[in-house]
Target: 4,4'-diaponeurosporenoate glycosyltransferase
Amino acid sequence: MPRVSIIIPTLNEAAALGRTLRCLSVLDPPAWEILVVDGGSRDETTAIAASISATVIHSEQAGRSIQMNRGAEAATGEILCFLHADTLVPDDLVTVIERTLGNPAIACGGFISLMTGTETTRWGVSLHNYLKTYYAPLLFHPYLFTFKGLRLLFGDQVMFCRREAFWACGGFDPALPIMEEADLCLKLLPHGRIRQVNRVVQSSDRRVAKWGALKATAIYLSVGFLWGMGASATTLKRFYEDIR
Model:
């Protein structure tokens, strides 16, 4: 079976990373390797990663696209899986990934993201994020959606693809501070369909908890539509403040 390399970009993620890595430690079958690519954390992020058997890579520049590309360069598995530091995955993650990409017609996949916190599950926001995978490409790329299998995946959905296809399309655009996953979906489409698998991962609701559900949904909608209309990623990033 192809080997799965899990790549986690981090920046000051000490509060969340330990739980995520403990979740990965019980994967059955295990991942081939877990690479934590740090962008200059000032907390205990790298110490936590090293203590739970992850390989720590220090990126000279911060930025998710830059860090994920750096992890992909170091990865030795045939499949790359990009995971946020605050997202929990099912223990059969590797099997789901291998089975999905066992179909040569599929170039890339991701999961359904369920946004949860210590006190609540964000059902409304999670439903919107699920639907966005479909309605965004339908609105802005209807031909590609209907005939080529385009879906737009986002960071919380734990995106995965073959390493060969990732580099053939140039990987993540290092100039993009936001929407880098959706951009990669468009670039991967010549290599096959994009699929959202019918399995759930749990992502932290920390951003929604800070903004509130209505503000968060409004920002998600605004960023998506403006991106679809051609607004620059630099402009869009102004809507998306760092909450750590």
In short: The chain has eleven helices and eight strands. The domain at 4-237 is CATH 3.90.550.10 (Spore Coat Polysaccharide Biosynthesis Protein SpsA; Chain A). The chain has one domain: 4-237.
